[in-house]
Specification:
Layout (H helix, E strand, L loop, with lengths): L14 E4 L5 E4 L7 H18 L7 E8 L3 E8 H9 L12 E10 L2 E7 L10 E3 L2 E3 L5 H13 L10 E7 L3 E9 L4 H11 L4 E7 L4 H6 L9 H7 L12
Parallel strand pairs: 2-4, 5-10
Antiparallel strand pairs: 1-9, 3-4, 5-6, 5-8, 6-7, 6-11, 9-10
Helix pairs in contact: 1-2, 3-4
């Protein structure tokens, strides 16, 4: 059942939004599913868990209720809710109707932009190139979450980057990505060494793409790009046209 307050979800149109530097994050009350929906979520989760094993973990997550440049309203979810809606989109009409929220870190060093190719075993968009690191928002602090993804996926600690800067939001009816700029003084060699030595297998390839090659990288028809990669770069202020330069 849904709370009867101003945090009731409204259908979201595709959204590309620049966020204020002082954007607030408000957490709405959680929801309680009826018995039928909870049973269906459990059935889907059991199938997916049997298939994926220990790779699949039912952790905390958040759904996007509403957004403007000054405030984001999020509602607590579980990762099993995300998986269930992904496998059975009709569940959106039964209460699983919030876009789940993730973080996308846009990491640059003096040489260029860090891009990772999602491994084939990743649940969605396997083989696609995206900004790295990225992941599901599991705590109500996008900066803390992107630093955790940085450590986990690329093997880099928080001390390796300047404080993350939350700068934008990409949202559809199914998912929402919070875009955060990350900057490091580490060399390309050190970034790659940390990923190879301490990162996870979320990515099967990592590249640091120079500013003057980013447009060509995005135009290369032989590469599969995450559908919102270009929009992510736009929000982070990284032009990817013919005369683009990393800012």
């Amino acid at each position: 059942m849904a709370p009867s307050d101003d945090t009731q979800a409204k259908p979201l149109r595709p959204l590309q939004l620049r966020l204020d530097r002082t954007v607030r994050i408000r957490i709405a009350p959680g929801m309680v599913h009826d018995a039928g929906l909870e049973r269906r979520i459990g059935e889907i989760w059991a199938v997916e868990k049997a298939r994926a094993g220990e790779r699949l973990f039912d952790g905390a997550a958040f759904g996007l209720v509403s957004a403007d440049a000054a405030e984001l309203v999020l509602r607590p979810l579980r990762y099993r809710d995300i998986v269930a809606r992904r496998r059975d989109p009709s569940l959106a009409s039964q209460g699983l109707n919030l876009p789940h929220v993730g973080v996308s870190g846009v990491l640059t060093n003096g040489a260029g932009l860090v891009l990772g190719r999602r491994a084939s075993h990743v649940a969605v968009h396997g083989g696609a190139w995206e900004t790295a690191p990225s992941g599901v928002l599991a705590v109500p602090d996008p900066g803390a979450q992107v630093l955790e993804e940085l450590r986990e996926e690329l093997g880099l600690g928080a001390e390796c980057v300047a404080p993350p800067e939350l700068c934008g939001l990409l949202a559809t009816a199914e998912s929402a990505e919070l875009v955060l700029r990350l900057q490091t003084s580490l060399s390309t060699e050190n970034i790659l060494a940390a990923w190879r030595g301490h990162g996870t297998d979320e990515y099967d390839a990592l590249e640091i793409v120079p500013a003057d090659q980013l447009a060509a990288f995005c135009r290369d028809g032989a590469r599969l790009l995450l559908p919102d990669l270009r929009a992510t770069l736009d929000l982070a202020g990284l032009p990817h046209g013919p005369r683009g330069a990393l800012l």
